[in-house]
Each structure stands twice: as C-alpha cells, then as structure tokens.
Design goal:
Layout lengths: L1 H12 L31 E4 H6 L15 E6 L1 E10 L2 E3 L8 E5 L2 E3 L12 E8 L13 E7 L6 E9 L3 E11 L4 E12 L4 E2 L9 E15 L2 E14 L6 E2 L2 H5 L13 E2 L6 E17 L2 E19 L8 E20 L6 E22 L11 E23 L6 E18 L9 E21 L2 E12 L2 E2 L10 E2 L2 E12 L5 E21 L4 E23 L3 E14 L23 E11 L2 E10 L2 E7 L4 E7 L2 E11 L3 E8 L7 E7 L8 E6 L4 E9 L1
Parallel strand pairs: 5-8, 12-16
Antiparallel strand pairs: 1-7, 2-3, 3-4, 5-6, 7-8, 9-10, 9-39, 10-11, 11-13, 13-14, 14-17, 15-38, 17-18, 18-19, 19-20, 20-21, 21-22, 22-23, 23-24, 24-27, 25-26, 27-28, 28-29, 29-30, 30-31, 31-32, 32-35, 33-34, 35-36, 36-39, 37-38
Amino acid sequence: MRIVLLSALIAAVLPLPSRAEAPKPLKRVDVKRDVGGPSLPANDRRIDGVDLEQARVTELSELQAQVPNLRIADYGSRAGQRVVGLRGFMNHWSSPQAPVALRIDGVTLADPLSFDQRLFDVDRVDVRVGPQGTQGSTQAPAGMIDVVTRRPDGFRAWLESGLSSRDGYSVGTGVGGDIGEHWQGSIAVLADRSDGFLHNLARPDAADARRDRYLRGRLWWQPDDDTELRLLLLDRHANDDSGEVFVPVDTVSFNALPTLAGLQLGDFDRALDQPGFSRVDATLAGIGGHRVLGALRIGGELSSRRSQLASSSDYDLSPQPWFVMDSDYDTQESRAELFVESSPESEVWRWRIGAAAVDREFDTRRVFNAGPGNPWQLPVMGYVRTDVQLSDDDRAMFGEASRRLDASGRWRLGAGARLQWSGRRMHFGGSALGAPVADLRHDDRQQQPRLWLEFSPDEGMNAYAALARGGRPAGFNPGTFSAAQSAYRAETMTALDVGLRGGQDKPLEWQVAVFSDRVRDYQELTFADREFTTYLRNVERVDLHGGEASVQVRVGDRWRIGAKLGHVRARYGRDRLDPMTGFGLSGRRLSQVPANTARTDIEYRTGPWFVRGEWVAAGGFRIDAYDAQLAELREENIRGFRIVNASAGWRGEHWSLLAQANNLGDERYFTGATFGFAALALYPRAIGTPAPPRTFGLAVRWDN
C-alpha cells in the first residue's frame, strides 16, 4: 500500500506536459491548510510566533501556559519522556500513540516521545481539539498541535543566543531563500546546554545536566501556482546526565529513612550512588505536496522516522548499590497519506477523502542489575527482565464534506468518518521469572464518525458545535513480566464540543468552549510497585467534562491584557477490577489530571520597547500505585502551583533583546509525579520531576 500511495503522490504533484509558457509570478502558498471544515473552529487556538518569542516559549511543553487544559509534563527524563494530554485525556510516553498528535510543517508525529521538541523560528502554533481522525493519517482522539515554521520570502538569515542563570546557554542560527527558479530552501540549527538545578549529595556528579542539538532542513519546489512539493528533515540528539530526574515529594519522611546513610535532602537534592543517563537520537524525513487539477486538489504525505532512547537509572533512589535499570528503546515508523479534496476556491461544497498507512516497529530491552544486600534478595548479577518486539500496522480510509446552507455563507454543516484496520504483533522474549517466550497477535477495526455545524454571523464571530467519535486501537505492553499480562483492548471516545469566538482582530477578542467526553476502555498507565511494572490497562469508563474561556483586551496601541481559564472534571466512571491488582477506581479523580488551569498576562508597549508580566496557575493532580506485597492501593495528591513570570525587551528593525525572569516567587512544584520502587521503605513513596526554581535569562536575536 505504501508503494501505491508513493506513486500516486508523485504523479499528483508533478506537472502535466504542456506547451511552453512564459513564467508566471508565484503566489505564496501556505505550508498547511485545512479543507473540508472550518480553518480554525471556535474551540481551537492559534498562537503567533512573535508572541512565543516575547514570552520566551522555547519548548513544546511550555505551551501549557498558553493553552487551557493542555498538559505536556516531564516524566522522569528531560531527554524524551513526556506525559501528554488535553482536556483530561492523558497518556504516558510508553504508549505507542499519544492522545494528542504533533504535526511539524505538515509531517505528523503521533507518539509521546516526539513531544520533547524545541520551538525556534516558528511562524505559528495551532492547537486543534477533539478527534482528528477524519483529517489525515492519525486518529489523535484528543486533538493535534500543529507547528508551522517560518518560510523564507527572499533571502533570510537569523542568529540568536541566550543565557540562563542556571548555567545554561543556547545558540541558534538559520539561513534560507531562493536557490533556483522554482526552489526555496532553509536550514536551521540550535544547540543548548544546561547544568541544571538538582544536586546529588552522594557523589559529585552533575545531577541533571543536559545537552541538546537540533537540525531542521526544509526545501520547497513550486513550479507554478497549482503545484507544490515540500521536504522536511529533522535531526535531534539529546543527552541528559541524570537518567530519570526524580526527587522525593515529601523530603521530611525520606530524610527519616536509615537507608539515606545520614544524608539530609533539601528541596532539589537527591542521594544516588549511580548518576545515570538518558540519550535520545531521533531523525525524521518527510515529503508532502499537492497539485490542483481543475476543481480538485490532490496531495499527500510520506515520512520516515527513527528514534532511539538509551537510559540508565538508579531505581532504588538511595546511596545504596541495590538496583539499577538499563533500558534501550528503538522505534522505527513510516507513514503515508494520500488525499483528494475540493479546490481552495470551492464555496458551496468542501470535501476531502483519503487513505493512510502507518507501520511501526518498537524494540525494547530492559536489564535490572541487583546489588548486594538488596531488599528483594535478588542474586547479585544482571537480572534480565524482558526483550520485547512490537509491530503495529494501521490502514485507514477517511473523508469529510461540508455544505454552505444559505446564500450568505453564515451556516455550514459538515460530516465525516474514518474507518481504520489495525494489526498488532508482539514477540515476548521471556523473563528471568520464568515467563516463557510467546508470540501474540491482535487485529481490530474501528469506525469513527464526525458531525459538525458552524455559524458565522459576521467576520468577527464564529460558533461551532461538533459531535465525534475517536479512540485508539488495542495493543500489547512492552513492560510486563509475562505475555499474559500484556494485552489491552481498543479504546473509544465520544466527544461533544461547543465553542463561540468573537471580536477577531478587534480591541476585545474572546473565546469560550464547553465539552463533554466519554471514553470507554480508556487506556491508562498503571504502576505496580512490588512487581517493578508499569503497564497500560483498560478502564471501563472515564467521564471528562469541562470548559475553557479566554479574553484579550487591547487598550490603544500600548496596552494588551489577557486571561485564560480551563476546567476539567475527570472521573473514573465504571472501572472493572484490574486482573493484575484486584483494584478498581470507580468514582475517583483521574490520575495525572489537574482540575483547573489559569493564566493572566499584561503587556505594555512604547515604540520598540515592551514590558510584560504573567501569572500562571494549575491545580493539583492525583497519582496512585498498587502495592502487591501489602495488597493495597496507595494514593497521593500532588499540589498545584501559582507562579509569576516577567519579561522586558526591545525590538528594532533587525535586532531584538529580551530579559526574562521566571518563577519570581521561587515556588517549588512538580511537573510530573509517580511512585518510586520500594527500596527506601517497605512501601512505595511519591517521587516527582521538579520544576526549575527562580531563573533569570537574557536572549539576543538578529534577523535580516
């Protein structure tokens, strides 16, 4: 199928033979455009690249402050692992498909490991909520983050550098422009380094030093107004000198444990005999394009990606040489999509149909190294857990159409559907506990319809309502002790969205949305402490209800005031007893989901100068773990945070300067949390990934 899609894409974008014509001036074609529905519905969000620069949003996870109910949290390692979720629909990095997809310049990335991305030289970011399965190659039941980088218009070059009070720095540069009669290209590189802010009291090693390197290359071919071909290359290397970056949530109780050997931990202290590491190498190559043929627009996407994650972590969380886990993950993915849609000039009818294929290979190997005197009485040797190979094959057909209902174009009704076939295979290499080698396979099919209605009474107002079904296919866990524990069922989500936006490009802009989602067989990460296991299990029903609101006021040419608020009530509905733990969570708050998020900001401009301040807050969230030895479920509430950030800068014709201060109150809080293994005590302890303390930064940029 991939060969067929490739041939069709090449045939679609290549111009047909014709008589020689005088060259025509080319019109600018945007990197991405939605057809078959509203370009930006009232419940979606758009963030301008200039606003990202002035707020010094340099990482994808920092979009949380810009988008209500969005969560992209560090989970252990800053070199790749992320908890990803939107509107309470959460998942863990070990899942093969995140509930939120990421798209960079039209190329789709759908696994949670892709969300450790830097944002540089960005034109805009669109956050689209709700199931996206009728749009393209991925299901994305919770939504999609669409990153569009800047495209050169003539020759363009830029250079930026930043310094941080946490012994960090970054340097980035890029160049682009016309490289032929019909060709444009650009290349950008970014390197940064930070010595971190954690301390290891047990040895002098750096506790969380990090080094990153990014390369992004782009190429456009546009021989005429109706044809475009785009190429994208991403290469990334990240090295975290600490493995999993966890510290105790409750330092007082940790300090009372005799295994700390008299060491007393502060807020940003650890005491590990092994420093650990995490390394990520990832490469993505993608090609996309389109050609307009009369009343049709034909296009597609092809991409290939490989990511490798190697890590070593001190899992006993103590200065004792008891337990070290070494892990290797290797993911290879190829993705193909072909679509045919109505031309951009279509007014009454807009439609889109397409097909997609995704193939993924995931190999993992984990080795547990036990030391002398360990509490589990394991032999002092390499304690091999499992070697697992997973293979995923997804095939899909999708389509949607919308029609203008009145002559004025104020009303538009649309419908769409996605039909997906999924195949999952797992080779389980056995374990030291005696689990035998096994080969498992599972196939399933999902239907995902979508219906929406749009009302635009004037140019500045838009109302939107959508009812859709989304979900993710069944699969196998790579991290369990036996093949029998590894399977989880397909997930289905029914989502209702209603949104209203007004005042676009006016002094008062506002946006409000409400949603009600019900997920059946929700795929949730579960932590079983004594069995050293994290695995995906199914929750029979999860209910997600909430809303978002935002407002922005411009007072003259100098003042801009904004506020954003998000609320989600995320509860377990019916939860069957987990066959592995024997526990159900009916009626409890969903794990890892803050109930409230809020942000207010104020900005003052005078000439080339600006000053801005922002207040960012998020509610606490709940975590849990099953203790097999004590046969009990342990829970802990992780408190939320309220922080103040400030920045000031100057922007000239070519130069800009930005000074920034984050977390001015020096508040201690956690971006993510879980329970640690039980080497420090006879029961699991809450551990978290701390957010940076008060940090000052300075950045300078030149752009022609």
